[in-house]
């Protein structure tokens, strides 16, 4: 499952794509997920309000000479035709797990697994795909290391959209005592930097079969919602809420056979169509400068960024 803003995307055992509008309860069914596509990603084009589903398909070269990837896009709504379209191959082999991709402000960011054409890959790099133009961004971004002076190979990165920011969560591969959350923010119109906003003290991995998977949301009171998954191969998942003030976790219900979870950030008071195929929202809510939109935001980006620039000294 993946969620973005007001819609959620689910893939059933029949591989068919189902899009849920939680505000109205309406469900729309689309063609099956492409074969050899491990996961699907749901995103929204800010300029048009259009939703698209993105999937990366692994293709084996003839005579067994390695693999390459092909991107596939499904545009929701009547204008999209309801069919998967090829968008070409990414400039590098990207991760296809849910924690390897995050959609932020119309761009899908992927962790790079390996470079093409035999070039050596630097550790923990990400690249972006523009959902509006359906083109890969020319720049590749480096994700900050877990700790100063530590070898990148000892850490694992998960990407997430948290409160409308791209977040890289860095944990130690062999059982983290803490997870550091790095937020990518715009320092200037042309410069973006990583800021380490939160450090989550994790429970002893030997005392629980659940481990940190990815962050989901920062709540108004400062608590952090994260998703945890099992390490025993059962694919069970569980939400946890971390309270930085008390350094404690509140555990939610365990969901069996759940590969991934997403954060739904829509408005249950929204007035609009009950059919996700023709999804529309109030024009007032489309205006991000409107008082209603500002009231619905779960974090004040402006004031938070000012605090970060005055207190953060180590950035990448």
From TrEMBL:
<protein>
    <recommendedName>
        <fullName>F-box associated beta-propeller type 3 domain-containing protein</fullName>
    </recommendedName>
</protein>
<feature type="domain" description="F-box associated beta-propeller type 3">
    <location>
        <begin position="22"/>
        <end position="251"/>
    </location>
</feature>
<dbReference type="InterPro" id="IPR017451">
    <property type="entry name" value="F-box-assoc_interact_dom"/>
</dbReference>
<dbReference type="InterPro" id="IPR013187">
    <property type="entry name" value="F-box-assoc_dom_typ3"/>
</dbReference>
<dbReference type="Pfam" id="PF08268">
    <property type="entry name" value="FBA_3"/>
</dbReference>
